[in-house]
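Final report, closing paragraph on structural work. Over the funding period we assembled a curated collection of sequence-structure pairs, and we close with a single example.
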Amino acid sequence: MSTTQDSSAGTASTGSLSSEATVDLFSQYVVPNYGRYPINLVRGEGSQVWDAEGKQYLDFFPGWGCNLLGHCPDLVVKAVQEQVAQLIHVPNSWHMQSQGQWAKMLSDRSFGGQAFFCNSGTEANEAAIKLARLHSSADRYKIITFQGGFHGRTYGATSATAQPKYHEGIGPLMAGFVYAPFGDLEAVKAAVDEQTCAIMIEPVQGEGGVRIPPEGFLQGLRAIADENNLLLIFDEVQTGCGRTGHWFGYQHFDVTPDIMTLAKSICGGIAGGALLTTAEIAPSLRPGMHAATFGGNPIAARAGIAALEMIERDNLLENVAVLSEIFKQRLTTLQEECDFIKEVRVIGMMIGLELTIDGGPFVKACMEQGLLINCTQGNVIRFLPAMNLTEAEAHQGCDILAEVMKQANNAE
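Its predicted structure, as stored:
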């Protein structure tokens, strides 16, 4: 896999700088706030990408989860190309048919209600925080969130993120967030007081390590919210739009939130985000209280519609069920062969392998073998593959991972 060359992806055909030259360019002119690998990616198709030197990679972490339909999905590409030639941007002081249609499609596939559009997950979560407070009385402002959760990089979303490593050096944080242990209903009950207005949680923690909630936990949160007149907010930035095998993660657990936030894959790789809420709660986000200049713009709306249509056209929810079983089987077998694999966690196309050792070296070793993966929390290997990954590609990636991990296991 790693030795495959594609002349159409090389520097001569694309005019791309070499990877080395691109790294030099970044070192001079780009803020170094990301840990980047020394590769210049120039082209993608499906679950395959190529660098400037023509090396091909199988991408199990496309776009940090944004490319749920792989690289350059045909319907999304066509919709964006058509829209760019017609109308690129107009403000939300006007109506746009595509935005209304997109909102209806999301509403029909979820719990109904209405949508607010923005550009990213952190923006969607900022809107949810603001809506929760606006919908409550003035003295109710606290929101319970969960240890290991991740809600974004802006100050409100960072304050909602109960991970101290993201708080270092940027205090004081925004007031009003109370952190509870993930999976502990008694702790949540104890955290509720007369100033609490909402509970906010990822149905499955993504950056936290693909942590699936214990049985009955989300149902218990719904009951606590109902008993105390709180809003239940589900951050589905990573779980939404089909990744888990249902349209939305909450549909796995038979629990319906009052507010749901979406982003990442919602536009098939184009920047976009959304908040969905009920028609009863939506008016609290009244004119003048919140906005997003580019939110729901014509390009994002057309891309969002096309992404939903492509999932249905290609029966990708059904494909996720097939692929999920392949990953469960392959990785469970690998766990039996490698002493350092502590747990395998799979829900649709969210896949985590918790290790007892550092996972970083495996990311590098797999990359050298032509497989792109991620490590989160230091010891959880994470895959967020495309829904239209083929069965052959799933096995191919598992073969590469197995070879790398078995070598490490034998070395021990």
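The first helix runs from residue 11 to 14. Residues 74-313 form a domain with the Aspartate Aminotransferase; domain 2 fold (CATH 3.40.640.10). We thank the funder for supporting this effort.
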